[in-house]
């Protein structure tokens, strides 16, 4: 090959290389699109399977999920947790990511504690999201009253543990969210909830659980005129227990201002509901003379305003 031919050949080789690179890029793009399409199809298939399980077409989905969840919380499978979390998240689409942020430069003991805490939070999050999902499954099917009563028994057991044991790790906000999502549960358990709140074995739950009772009240009462009579009927059936709760609150005023404020806020909500449904007379009767005096002392004008609306 002569020196004069070298530039031409170099230019030709360069063109061939460019065409080859373009062809490879095109093939890669096509393969990528195929992979994305296949992945999308797989996700949709899994979603249809989950939907089928929810609507009764494939009951095996509950068994599969239960087995995965048990494997996840089993200490012997701790090393495989990340893979199981991925299955529960991506395959069943049940919850938000549970993965914790990785940290570097931490001493082994603290790193071990951090790992244990991250695992605890992950399992806690899984439990909560699983509860929401199972309740969704229950609502989508036609269960008998006996079967639904079994569901209520589970929540009764949870409430007993919360009010009677310091070891209970149930969070109030979780129960509030359950009540918010499934009104039928709190309507069935409201009387039981108030009873446990009046006489808890764990004293610090007294004020902390008022938010839970408030959520229950919100579920009992509807602002719609069409259901006003139904709301009144539901409230009237719990009036005695509600009066006892308010009486107990004003007779055991807490030293901390923050907790007193929570009690005042809760009582104000009760008074507002009672007066709006024209149940003031029934409520005052439930309080009795001692309870009314306690309300006047602890709540002042807030209670006097209620008495002025007596029907």
TrEMBL record:
<dbReference type="GO" id="GO:0003677">
    <property type="term" value="F:DNA binding"/>
</dbReference>
<keyword id="KW-0539">Nucleus</keyword>
<dbReference type="GO" id="GO:0006355">
    <property type="term" value="P:regulation of DNA-templated transcription"/>
</dbReference>
<feature type="region of interest" description="Disordered">
    <location>
        <begin position="1"/>
        <end position="54"/>
    </location>
</feature>
<dbReference type="GO" id="GO:0005730">
    <property type="term" value="C:nucleolus"/>
</dbReference>
<feature type="compositionally biased region" description="Basic and acidic residues">
    <location>
        <begin position="38"/>
        <end position="54"/>
    </location>
</feature>
<dbReference type="InterPro" id="IPR007015">
    <property type="entry name" value="DNA_pol_V/MYBBP1A"/>
</dbReference>
<protein>
    <submittedName>
        <fullName>Uncharacterized protein</fullName>
    </submittedName>
</protein>
<feature type="compositionally biased region" description="Basic residues">
    <location>
        <begin position="17"/>
        <end position="37"/>
    </location>
</feature>
């Amino acid at each position: 090959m002569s020196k004069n031919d070298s530039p031409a050949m170099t230019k030709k080789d360069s063109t061939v290389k460019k065409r080859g690179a373009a062809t490879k890029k095109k093939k890669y793009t096509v393969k990528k699109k195929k992979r994305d399409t296949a992945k999308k199809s797989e996700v949709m298939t899994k979603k249809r399977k989950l939907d089928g399980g929810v609507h009764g077409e494939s009951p095996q989905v509950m068994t599969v999920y239960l087995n995965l969840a048990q494997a996840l919380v089993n200490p012997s499978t701790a090393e495989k947790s990340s893979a199981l979390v991925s299955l529960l998240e991506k395959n069943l689409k049940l919850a938000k990511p549970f993965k914790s942020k990785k940290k570097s430069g931490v001493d082994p003991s603290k790193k071990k504690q951090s790992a244990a805490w991250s695992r605890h939070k992950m399992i806690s999050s899984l439990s909560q999201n699983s509860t929401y999902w199972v309740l969704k499954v229950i609502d989508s099917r036609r269960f008998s009253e006996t079967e639904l009563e079994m569901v209520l028994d589970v929540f009764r057991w949870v409430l007993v543990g919360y009010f009677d044991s310091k070891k209970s790790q149930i969070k109030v906000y979780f129960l509030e969210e359950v009540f918010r999502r499934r009104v039928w549960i709190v309507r069935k358990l409201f009387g039981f909830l108030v009873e446990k709140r009046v006489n808890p074995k764990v004293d610090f739950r007294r004020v902390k659980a008022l938010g839970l009772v408030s959520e229950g009240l919100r579920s009992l009462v509807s602002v719609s005129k069409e259901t006003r009579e139904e709301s009144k009927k539901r409230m009237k059936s719990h009036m005695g227990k509600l009066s006892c709760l308010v009486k107990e609150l004003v007779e055991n005023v807490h030293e901390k201002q923050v907790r007193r404020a929570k009690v005042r806020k809760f009582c104000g909500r009760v008074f507002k509901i009672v007066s709006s449904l024209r149940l003031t007379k029934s409520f005052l009767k439930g309080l009795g003379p001692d309870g009314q005096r306690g309300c006047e002392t602890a709540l002042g004008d807030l209670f006097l305003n209620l008495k002025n609306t007596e029907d």
